[in-house]
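Deliverable D2.4 — example input (structure tokens):
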């Protein structure tokens, strides 16, 4: 009874904090643009934290991971609610043995082992409700306990994928470090206005180590020019790679892996597992790679910048050149505006 009263009270708070019933359509085009805005999502995560015992950052991370999967596979994972990320098939939601795949009764869904839950207190487990979607996922993970290890076990049981556990924990760390949801800022990987050059080299042939294609953009610059983080992210890899030399890899909240290679060295304060923000110095342009640790000078100094998207089970590279042009122009415009003040 106490649990139900807490759930009901939280649902009432959700309705008040979000400004409209969970199932209501946005009242206008302006409201539609605001659907899923950080303020709305943050309020929902906070109230669902009261309902499940998970931290709001953990609920946000679960939702964000689902949002990235939908972005990577939009046809296979269509949107169910207005903004919540979770996708569940009718069988997953209502239960694989449920004779009614469109069942919305929370009791019968639970009986048949479905994940559907009533989070907004309207008596229905409705997959078109953002709050029901969030509550279904968070409560499934939370049933394993409240410690960090329990949370990881819950994520594993939900996805049966260690990659998902790593991503959700990385996203949680980012939200805890910066304390907000709007972590989509960016920076060009070397200081704009310095002496560098680059062009689109995506897909060109490479011969060292066997035939392969170039998965990135080379930014040629003087040895020692600072290399900066392009995003808010978590350092996933640091060290030597036979192809990339001294390299660093950073995972962002969009589940993209940013790869910086051929560095002359790293900022000594950095460690794997740390968070970084856009513009943070990671290391310096060099010419390391194409050999055993310490090999350098087999090509002119430059930064190889690559970017990869995680599809849940595999990662694939895509051409970073358009993003680099976008970030460079935005930073140049911001610098010009500051000078004009």
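Example output (designed residues):
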């Amino acid at each position: 009874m106490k649990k139900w009263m807490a759930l009901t009270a939280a649902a009432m708070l959700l309705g008040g904090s979000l400004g409209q019933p969970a199932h209501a359509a946005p009242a206008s085009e302006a409201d539609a643009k605001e659907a899923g805005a950080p303020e709305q999502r943050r309020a929902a995560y906070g109230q669902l934290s009261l309902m499940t015992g998970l931290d709001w950052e953990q609920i946000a991370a679960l939702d964000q991971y689902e949002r990235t999967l939908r972005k990577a596979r939009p046809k296979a994972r269509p949107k169910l609610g207005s903004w919540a990320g979770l996708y569940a098939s009718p069988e997953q939601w209502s239960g694989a043995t449920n004779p009614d795949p469109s069942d919305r009764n929370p009791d019968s869904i639970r009986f048949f082992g479905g994940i559907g839950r009533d989070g907004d207190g309207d008596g229905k487990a409705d997959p078109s409700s953002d709050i029901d979607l969030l509550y279904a996922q968070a409560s499934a993970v939370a049933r394993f306990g409240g410690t960090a290890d329990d949370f990881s076990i819950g994520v594993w049981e939900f996805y049966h994928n260690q990659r998902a556990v790593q991503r959700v924990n990385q996203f949680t760390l980012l939200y805890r470090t910066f304390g907000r949801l709007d972590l989509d800022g960016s920076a060009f990987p070397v200081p704009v206005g310095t002496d560098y050059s680059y062009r689109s080299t995506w897909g060109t042939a490479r011969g060292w180590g066997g035939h392969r294609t170039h998965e990135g953009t080379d930014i040629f610059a003087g040895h020692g020019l600072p290399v900066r983080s392009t995003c808010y992210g978590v350092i996933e890899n640091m060290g030597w790679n036979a192809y990339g030399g001294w390299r660093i890899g950073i995972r962002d909240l969009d589940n993209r892996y940013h790869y910086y290679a051929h560095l002359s060295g790293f900022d000594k304060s950095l460690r794997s597992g740390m968070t970084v923000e856009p513009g943070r110095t990671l290391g310096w342009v060099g010419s390391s790679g194409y050999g055993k640790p310490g090999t350098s000078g087999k090509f002119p100094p430059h930064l190889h910048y690559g970017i990869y998207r995680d599809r849940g089970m595999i990662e694939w590279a895509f051409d970073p050149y358009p993003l680099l042009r976008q970030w460079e122009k935005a930073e140049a415009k911001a610098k010009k505006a500051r000078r004009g003040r």
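The CA atoms of residues 240 and 293 lie 6 Å apart.
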